[in-house]
Write a structure and sequence with these properties.
9 helices, globular, alpha+beta, 219 residues
């Protein structure tokens, strides 16, 4: 399955999930944001991808700016903007940026699911697709920093990150791995997973955005 259908199916699930819900419901996975803010971020972020505007990504200001600029908008405004920007973004899905968009939208789908108490769609193609780009980034980072290779054993097979023979193994699910490396788990939660080897060897490398969640997050 290519990127565009996965993205559109996820967008449809999000639409069905939040329609009729309180748009001001807090989303604990993204502190300070509401349900409406997450949708506004997805809408505004997609336009930033189209415009190649990525200032503030590492600091977190990238997403905060999108939400801040749309505070006065309604949830319907956010969906209307998302629809318009989805058309503009069509060419991106057949580029390497397509896998980044998948990772972004699927991660936020599960942020919203956790906020609304509606878990689901954890073992489908969307979650596996959402790992494509992050695992490539982690592999590159580990190689560049000479971090010992790590075997990650998932429900659909194994993947080795880093160079050489793996010196440890992490056994988990695609969903838990996505949430862990995407900043939705604390370092202690990740260390408590099923490891062969000392997790401290790899814990810092597994923070896709440079940091793990400071406190545990259950969903």
């Amino acid at each position: 399955m290519t990127n565009a259908p996965v993205y559109d199916a996820t967008r449809q699930r999000i639409t069905e999930l939040v329609r009729g819900r309180d748009p001001q419901t807090p989303v604990a996975a993204t502190p300070g944001w509401s349900v409406k803010d997450v949708v506004a971020h997805l809408a505004g972020g997609l336009r930033d991808f189209v415009d190649r505007r990525f200032d503030g990504v590492e600091s977190g200001e990238w997403g905060e700016r999108q939400v801040r600029d749309r505070r006065a908008n309604t949830l319907d405004d956010a969906f209307a903007e998302w629809d318009a920007n989805r058309e503009l973004a069509e060419p991106l899905f057949d580029t390497p940026m397509g896998s980044v968009l998948i990772s972004e939208v699927v991660q936020h789908e599960h942020d919203l699911r956790a906020a609304l108490g509606v878990p689901g769609d954890r073992d489908g193609v969307a979650v596996r697709s959402a790992l494509t780009k992050p695992l490539q980034q982690l592999d590159q980072r580990m190689r560049e920093n000479d971090v010992p290779a790590l075997r990650i054993s998932l429900e659909h097979g194994d993947r080795v990150l880093g160079h050489g023979e793996p010196e440890g193994t992490l056994r988990t699910t695609s969903f838990e791995l996505m949430r862990a490396i995407g900043g939705r788990r604390s370092a202690d939660q990740i260390k408590a997973m099923d490891w062969d080897g000392d997790p401290d060897t790899w814990i810092s490398s597994l923070a896709l955005f440079g940091r793990h969640r400071p406190e545990p997050f259950e969903e």
